[in-house]
Amino acid sequence: MRRVYMDHSATTPVRPEVAQVVTKYFTETFGNASSVHAFGREARKGVETAREQIANLIKAKPEEIFFTSGGTEADNMAIIGTALANKDKGKHIITTQIEHHAVLDTCKYLEKQGFEVTYLPVDAEAMLDMETLKKAIRKDTILITIMHVNNEVGTILPIKEIGAIAKENNILFHVDAVQSFGKLPIDVNQMNIDMLSASGHKIYAPKGIGCLFLRKGTKLSPIMFGGAQERKRRPGTENVPGIVGFGLAAELAGKEMEEENKRLTKLRDKLIDGILEKIPESQLNGHRTQRLPGNVNVSLRYIEGESLLLMLDLKGIAASSGSACTSGSLDPSHVLMAMGICHEIAHGSLRLTLGKINTEEDIDYVLEVLPEIVEKLREMSPLYNSIKLERREECSKCTLTK
Ligand SMILES: *Cc1c(COP(=O)(O)O)cnc(C)c1O
To answer: Which residue among the candidates 107, 211, 325, 342 is catalytic per the annotation?
Structure first.
């Protein structure tokens, strides 16, 4: 059976060039990067090369890159570290309702510690309005933390504009760029970014490696203690193979970005157009154009996302959904809720995220299989025909199909 992986926003396969260098650093160049002997010096060299490769991709300086265990840790480090370092200046933080839980739950933790957090609303396409942001700024605001690309619906937020507003108001600006790093051009200076989180496993490097960009001179209290590694910002023996693999993956992503984005945009639009054309009562979630090249997120009415995922899995297609189960709760995705999409439509959401390994044949296969599955599921649902009309009225208020 054909196997089609369309869940690249969840994780990616390690690309062969990266796997090769990672293996070398596991078995041959295995020294502790802090050791003074040749084994240690060789490992150190690998770490410092990776630091340069990553800095280059976002126009930062190598000494502004701090390796972490991934995007989650980088988000925690940036947000808690800034809060602790600036608590005498103020206790107010601004973020959005559509952040990843690594940011949202960290903010919730800080609220329990006496900080105040404003969660900005977004519009029906998950876009943030700059006037809303400006109005939320207070004298005691110490941090703005906003994601670059939303991981569920793929909307690209106006980071440059947000950075300009943060700078104008002398507020630190952190960006969760896990979904854009290596996929969209980033210039931390042009965009006025003070801190930025990135992760290896979303760009064809191993899981468990990531980094925080921290602008030189930015105060940050450490949240971990125990060693002098990463200039005491992040103690613990460095994950040298992961770091080296992450560095190479970043460099390759930068080189291939333009061409790969063209290819993915074409595949994405073919998939979106095909779904909307072939499946009645379907709609696109997220922004039509300000959208990550590989992201497709649609709602298919009267369908439960979980059943759809199971049926797709039986056909060899790996995707994800913004409804229950996947997140371990009965609530539909907080992102779709923030966009004002009603429960009914949010529960039938399907996310297909494309990447390097996808081809046009994969798109054709999904376009052949998905409409059949949706039809079958709708037929099987005893509720579908009986309360369809009633539900349709209920949902008409949030119809986003344009
Ligand atoms: C995947 C992801 C994270 C978490 O990164 P990990 O390296 O898996 O910890 C954080 N934010 C966003 C937007 C993500 O997509």
So the answer is: 325
b/e code 251-288 from CB counts within 10 Å (16+ = b): bbbbeebeebbebbbebbeebbebbeeebebbbbbbbe
- pTM, to two decimals: 0.95
Cα within 13 Å of Cα(226), Cβ side: 7
225 & 87 share domain: yes
| Ligand 1 pocket check for 18: Cβ under 6 Å | no
- Whether residue 330 contacts residue 306, with contact meaning beta carbons closer than 8 Å, is answered with no
The CATH number given to whatever domain includes residue 340 is: 3.90.1150.10
Tokens read off for 103? 């940011």
Task: Confirm if 83 and 206 have CB atoms less than 8 A apart.
Answer: no
From the list 143, 159, 142, the residue with the least C-alpha distance to 58 is 159
End-of-domain residue from the set 253, 286, 314: 253
Phi-psi region of 237 (alpha: psi -120 to 50; beta: other; left: phi over 0): beta
For residue 392, the model assigns a pLDDT of 59
Chunked into runs of 10 residues, the chain (402 residues) has average pLDDT values of 96 98 98 96 98 98 98 98 98 98 98 98 98 98 98 98 98 98 98 98 98 97 91 92 98 98 98 98 96 97 91 97 59 92 88 98 98 94 64 56 37
What residue's CA is closest to ligand 1, atom 3?
A: 71
Q: Is 325 a catalytic residue?
A: yes
Q: Does residue 9 contact residue 291 with C-beta atoms inside 8 Å?
A: no
Residue 157's domain comprises 16-253
Residues 140 and 61 in one domain: yes
- Cα separation of 89 and 143, whole Å? 11
For residue 336, the model assigns a pLDDT of: 96
Q: How many CB atoms lie within 10 A of CB 78?
A: 30
210 lines ligand 1 (CB under 6 A): yes
pLDDT of residue 227: 84
Contact between residue 141 and residue 94 where contact means Cβ atoms under 8 Å apart: yes
d(CA 183, ligand 1 centre) in Å = 14
Number of structural domains (the chain) is 2
Confirm or reject: Cβ of 7 under 6 Å from ligand 1: no
